[in-house]
Amino acid sequence: MAEQRQVSEHEFAEQQAPEAGVEETPATEAAAPVQQDLDELQAKAAQRDEYLALAQRTQADFENFRKRMAREVGAAEARGTGRVVKELLPALDNLARAIGAAEAEEADSEHHLTAGIRLVQRDLAAALERVGIEAFSPKGEAFDPNEHEAMVQQPVEGAASGTVVEVYQQGYRLNGAVIRPARVVVAA
User: Which residues contact 159 (CB under 8 A, 6 or more apart)?
Assistant: First the structure.
């Protein structure tokens, strides 16, 4: 009978062992999908971070592009304005010469022709000022080769050497940059 008992206990232990293994298997099987979900979630988070970084870089690139285009448009506009003004300046100079010639020949400086030419000259000068063009006449200033073109250098009493004593043709600037230098006579 003792033998039977031992067998029974042994069988009982064998029967219990598979049950314990069965209990571990469902827990292991339940942990596997959780681990897969966790891995999948981490991969999606990494992908999200990658897309976010890409979106931020794209946004920064677009902002830089927008600023660069604004600068280039401004520069192109200034170049275009400068070209048109360079073409118009001789006409403005000729209007000034016409006024001078008309006033020299006529006794009346307010003759209708002179007044008309003066009006056209003022309108043209005002239009140039509206787009940022300013005229400058450097008489009495020190000669600056960046802004003045010396036509003649001659000794003049009472004037310091290197001083502009006469202006043949006034100069023009566009937003501070010289479009046409003033043509001047410089004291020697």
Answer: 165, 187
